[in-house]
Design brief:
single chain; 113 residues; mainly alpha; 5 helices; 67% helix; elongated
């Protein structure tokens, strides 16, 4: 049982600052690099770099707004990430059930002998 996982997507989500950015954008709607940097423990320049990573994998999109860009979460791409995570979880649950059955079989053979 193999689950297709988008490594670039999960690498982007793997960073705690980027996850915080996604949370902030989901909770507050579109935001700018400046508005996000005011709520995160990193510089505006670091926020811009994190936003570029999230944009590259399609988790966010931006639109010009005056001198800044407004970023918003692409909910379809986020749903794709959630579906991948659920599939990976299901695959691991199946593996763990199989390991449990094997361990129970070994234990039964031990007690029978």
């Amino acid at each position: 049982m193999t689950t297709a996982v988008d490594d670039a997507l999960w690498s982007a989500i793997g960073d705690p600052i980027r996850r915080s950015m996604i949370d902030l954008l989901l909770a507050g709607g579109p935001g700018t690099a400046t508005s996000l940097s005011e709520r995160l423990p990193v510089t505006r320049q670091a926020v811009s770099k994190h936003l570029a990573v999230l944009d590259r994998v399609g988790l966010i999109h931006s639109a010009p707004a005056g001198r800044e860009r407004h970023f918003r979460v692409d909910e379809a791409q986020l749903a794709r990430a959630v579906a991948q995570l659920a599939a990976v979880g299901d695959a691991w649950d199946a593996r763990l059930r199989r390991i449990k059955r094997i361990a129970e079989t070994i234990e039964r053979h031990r007690t029978d002998n």
